[in-house]
Amino acid sequence: MGLGGKRARGKKQNSWIRSVENEALLPSAKTLCIKAQLLNWFAERPGLKVIVYSQFIDMLKILERICGVEGWGSVMYYGGMSLDSRNKAIEEFALDERKKVMLASLKSGGIGLNLTMASKVIIVDPWWNFSMDQQAFCRVFRRGQEQKTEMTRFVVEDTIDTDIIWMQKQKQTEINQVMAEPKERTVMDLMKLFGPVGEDEAGNHFIITEDKD
């Protein structure tokens, strides 16, 4: 894609985000569940702080709108922000009692952060590698945490979410088998961890990627 194509796509995305910021939002299964979970937590502990992770900035923008309507102060934290802006967001989240929710992208929010001011975590959309979810949760579950911690993941049945959860479980099962069996592993054994293995006419092996579409 050329530079012009990238600019066009960027303008289209920015236009969509502006519409999210300015127009009424229709509820979805996930946003309703996230709102209900936050309402319950804040009813139990008004001073609670929560981190909500998503892979998609658009989803974070939608959740920012919901927080605003409900009167929950929130901060954004994602890779597209400057380092100063991200540091400021963490500082506000830690020190301002009105900032109850941090809306963070899964990847940027799971790296090298100490977020023990929060004790609850919501994963909006699962990543194919469960260790990414665990890493994000460990930002609150680490030395210095004095509260009970909890992570909630929302999975919509019969969607890509369920496929990703199945992949997570399958990969974890295979990893556990590899670690439990004390035999030497071949290259073929290792390739099979990532998917079905095929062979071309020259006898070279390759991993088969499945595309249901």
Describe the model.
- With 213 residues, the chain is α/β, with parallel strands linked by helices.
- The protein folds into two domains: 25-153, 3-Layer(aba) Sandwich (Rossmann fold); 183-213, no CATH class.
- The protein has helices spanning 3-22, 29-44, 57-70, 83-95, 130-137, 160-180, 187-192, and strands spanning 50-54, 73-77, 99-105, 120-123, 150-153, 197-199, 205-207.
- The strands form two sheets. Strands 2-3-1-4-5 form a five-stranded parallel beta sheet, with helices on both faces.
- The longest helix has 21 residues, at 160-180.
- The chain is elongated.
- The model is unreliable at 6-20 (pLDDT under 50).
Topology overview:
Blueprint: H1 3-22, H2 29-44, E1 50-54, H3 57-70, E2 73-77, H4 83-95, E3 99-105, E4 120-123, H5 130-137, E5 150-153, H6 160-180, H7 187-192, E6 197-199, E7 205-207
Parallel strand pairs: 1-3, 1-4, 2-3, 4-5
Antiparallel strand pairs: 6-7
Organism: Lineolata rhizophorae
GO cellular component, one term: nucleus
GO biological process, one term: DNA repair
Order of helices and strands: HHEHEHEEHEHHEE
* CATH architecture annotation name of the largest domain: 3-Layer(aba) Sandwich
| CATH hierarchy, class of the largest domain | Alpha Beta
Number of helices: 7
User: Compute the gyration radius: what is it?
Assistant: 21 Å
Poorly predicted sequence stretches spanning 5 or more consecutive residues: 6-20
In the CATH hierarchy, the third-tier topology of the largest domain is known as Rossmann fold
**What percent of residues adopt helix (DSSP H or I)?**
40-55%
CATH superfamily of the largest domain: P-loop containing nucleotide triphosphate hydrolases
Backbone structural class: alpha/beta
CA-CA gap between termini? 22 Å
Quote the average pLDDT: 78
Number of domain modules: 2
> How many E-type strands?
7
Q: Largest sheet, if any?
A: 5 strands, parallel
